[in-house]
Amino acid sequence: MNMLPSDRELSFPHALRVEASAGSGKTFLLACRFVQFLLSEKIPRSRLKNLLAITFTNEATAEMRKRILELLKQAAFEEEEAVEVLSPLLDLSQERMKELALKQIDEILAGYDEWQVRTIDSFIYRLIQAAPQELGLSRQDEIETHEAPLRAAALDRILLCSAQDPGLWGLLQNFVHHYLLFQARGSWWPRAELLQVLESLNEKETTYGLRFEIEKRRKGTRDLAMELSLSAQGFLDRAEAHGLKLKSNSHKAVSGVARGDLPEALSSNTWEREELRDLCLKEASVPKGPSAEWKALRTLAGAYAETRALEVSGPYLKILVPWRDQLSDLKSGSRSIFFSDINSLARRLLNEFALPEVIFRLGDRLYHFLLDEFQDTSILQWETLFPLIDNAMSQGGSLFCVGDRKQLLYRWRGSDLQVFQNGPGSFASLGDTGLLDFVLPYNWRSREVLLRFVAQVFGRENLERWIKEEPAGSDVLNPEYTGNVFSGASQELPPAHAVSHKGGMVRVEILSREGRSEEVKEESKLRLVRLLKEDVLFRHSPRDVLVLVRDNQEVQDFSHSLISAGIPVFSHRQLDIREDPLVQEILEILRFLEMPVDDQALASVIAGNILKGAWKEEAAGLSPWEWIEDQRLKSKGQGAKYLYQRLQKDFPGLWAKTLGDAFGSVGFLPPYDLVSMLFRRMDLIRCFPNHFVALSHLLELLYANEPEYGGDLRGFIQWTETGPDETFGVKTPQETGAVKVMTIHKAK
Predict the structure, then answer these.
(1) pTM for the complete prediction?
(2) Of 23, 119, 102, 18, whose CA–CA distance to 62 is shortest?
(3) Strand 51-55 and strand 117-119: pairing?
(4) Which residue has the higher pLDDT, 380 or 283?
(5) Superfamily classification of domain 14-125+344-439
(6) Is 1.20.1310.10 the CATH number for 577-731?
(7) Closest to 71 (Cα-Cα) out of 47, 119, 38, 113
(8) For the chain, what is the radius of gyration of the CA atoms?
């Protein structure tokens, strides 16, 4: 399958860009390239310390390291498969290949921590560690992966300071007015919504390395909307007077603006066209007058869109400035660096230092770069890597990047099409040779029918036909752009799989063309359960089935439907112990113990499963809901006792058997001992064996993370709400005998 040129054919400097769809063997190709450079005696400056391979996730890094070591080990043992792959790439005898492979394995294992196969974040962090003091950092600063508490604390500081700061108070008043009247929202305490928007805006800033600016506008949206509508109508009238015939979707967009239907009309890609001739039918001749008017109309539309965006987000942007300052102060005080900061810090480093100084401080001389998942590279990351790669290329180095442009549709972490298309060929050192492109044509993972289906659906002709026939598609999609993005969608079976991977099946079912989305989702869940139970699971093991959905809520919903139908399920969402019903009840118990006046928390516990058995023994046929409702009615209009006091009075035996000891121990025992007491008192492990894993993990978290939550109940409860998701996930082997349910993004 190897398509790499041999070391006899390679000339330096050079840049190779490989278009690799899913299943095409790109990780294997990267491993082959890395091993080729390590073993070659013809490639200049190709020692281990001169190579850098960059991935985007820890899993991808581990996989690539594993593949490289496996290939070297196979070469060292002269295994036929490795010799067959590497011999065409290297001008070496088999004996010499074996000798060099053994040597490289020893070198890698001796300096494993320094092996430059790493994520892009870890490499850029290593870069900024080269000059911490100059960047205002210290050796004590550490990457903080759990950012939520500091972000929330920054907003809380603003809320507290606003009592003494009239400026902050005015910003918050302006926000509340905007929130209630302009956005027509109704939360009595909008802190969570405000924090969510601030975090989203800050994420945009750190992704692109830019700051939002609030420009004062001469005119408001109402005046601009009126001016824009009049200008659009005037443009249409003059275009008609000149005999210009606009394309149907362009005429629809401009007419919509003229009618005042601005939000929908301005969403058309018509407004992206700089030249009037791109809006007209091909045979039309475009005079200068209407062409200038079109450019003026586009400028006015842009001004309206910006003013409208500022009107919507202005109050948030004004609070963003002091929030950002408070966050910076908190990070400095806690000696923390966020992952989202490192790209901006690296750009500062490269802007403020001469490149030779940066390279000297980095320690290693890098000449050959291998970039995995290149389509996920953001503009800011590329600006950081570019000078290093450019310097290497000027000294006879190389760039090898592998990516799938179709995945640019995800726009993951600010990835940009311009980086993928123009970045690799932009080095002056390449000279006349330019960028070398090739495509991996084979799919080593899928069966023939699926490959044929994908090629048919995403073929250029089919996409162009759909865009023309579908009004919504033709209005927002550029046929040329879409065709280019999906140009590599067609793949073939490799000759070695011509027989083994024949067949397969693709079936598309349209459940409903009408109806609410919730109704369609319910029908989807019923249909999925029926399909699995009546067909698929008769022919395949559950471990061979993967269900892809759009978001985490759907993971939860579909997992619940499958479990209810008796189908074993594995999902990353399901493995978060905070989603376990019994753990949720225990957290409600802790909320009650931490604040006994919280009647709502205690009511949830009384009506839950943990007290169910004890309640039946003590309450003589009375349902917990009836008792709770009765207490609610009795408490109206008088200074009644709290719910726990009435529970103690009405059911003293129940109280003593379940919550009494823990209630009396609050403040005397740490959370771990308190929860352990609850487990023993109510025999939770024996009574709820299906929840053993979640309950055990809860105890582990209480014991091992005491410094994280401060060692008290309130701190632990808050930590469960804001702590990093991976901490609460139960580690389960991937190879489990269950149907996998995950989001499309997680699968990617």
Answers:
(1) 0.77
(2) 119
(3) parallel
(4) 380
(5) P-loop containing nucleotide triphosphate hydrolases (3.40.50.300)
(6) no
(7) 38
(8) 31
